[in-house]
């Protein structure tokens, strides 16, 4: 829906960039973990996720009036990803150790992805407006984090289970914010009387 809004308005107003950037890096990291573990569920889902997030980033960059901060944030996280890839493929020879460290690396990114929409929490409470939060993204995050938590429990993989629990918690917090500060209340216009 955010991509549709950008295409319709040719603007990125009221759309956060950081959650989608961290999600893209998160997908690429988990794709590496899935390849190392040879888990086709992780590989398939994260390949599709990375492709969609990259499309979103390109659209955001195209419609953003301030391209420099968007490019710098993207390049910084890509540099972290490239450094991580180099570290895991060159410096760690043992496959089990690589899997454990990559799992920890992915877990940290997943937690940061789930916490990033809450960066505007003070602004939301101060303005009593949820216009900077995406309700469809909140629903999707809740469903995805719940699904991955259950999948991790089924596989007995703490690297999948543990970092997805904060996604459930932060989604519930955002649902509460949408309930507390409904999006329709903050419209800057008054209805005309007939």
Automatic annotation (TrEMBL):
Organism superkingdom: Eukaryota
GO molecular function: sugar transmembrane transporter activity
An annotated GO cellular component: plasma membrane
Primary location class: membrane
Membrane-crossing residue ranges in chain numbering: 40-63, 75-93, 99-119, 131-153, 159-179
Keywords annotated in UniProt: Cell membrane, Golgi apparatus, Membrane, Repeat, Sugar transport, Transmembrane, Transmembrane helix, Transport
Compartments where located: Cell membrane; Golgi apparatus membrane
UniProt membrane topology term: Multi-pass membrane protein
One protein family per Pfam: MtN3_slv
Family: Belongs to the SWEET sugar transporter family.
Name of this chain's protein: Sugar transporter SWEET1
Source organism per UniProt: Anhinga anhinga
Source organism phylogeny: Eukaryota, Metazoa, Chordata, Craniata, Vertebrata
């Amino acid at each position: 829906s955010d991509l549709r809004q950008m295409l319709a308005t040719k603007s990125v107003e009221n759309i956060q960039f950081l959650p989608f950037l961290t999600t893209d890096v998160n997908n690429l990291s988990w794709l590496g973990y899935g390849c190392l573990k040879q888990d086709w569920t992780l590989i398939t889902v994260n390949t599709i996720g990375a492709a969609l997030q990259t499309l979103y980033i390109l659209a955001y960059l195209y419609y953003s009036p301030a391209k420099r901060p968007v490019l710098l944030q993207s390049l910084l996280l890509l540099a972290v990803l490239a450094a991580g890839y180099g570290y895991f493929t060159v410096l760690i020879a043992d496959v089990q150790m690589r899997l454990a460290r990559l799992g920890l690396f992915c877990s940290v990114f997943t937690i940061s992805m789930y916490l990033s929409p809450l960066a505007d929490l003070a602004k939301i409470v101060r303005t009593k407006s949820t216009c900077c939060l995406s309700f469809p993204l909140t629903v999707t995050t809740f469903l995805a984090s719940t699904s991955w938590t259950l999948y991790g429990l089924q596989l007995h993989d703490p690297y999948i289970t543990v970092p997805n629990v904060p996604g459930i918690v932060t989604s519930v917090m955002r649902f509460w914010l949408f309930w507390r500060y409904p999006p329709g209340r903050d419209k800057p216009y008054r209805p005309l009387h007939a």
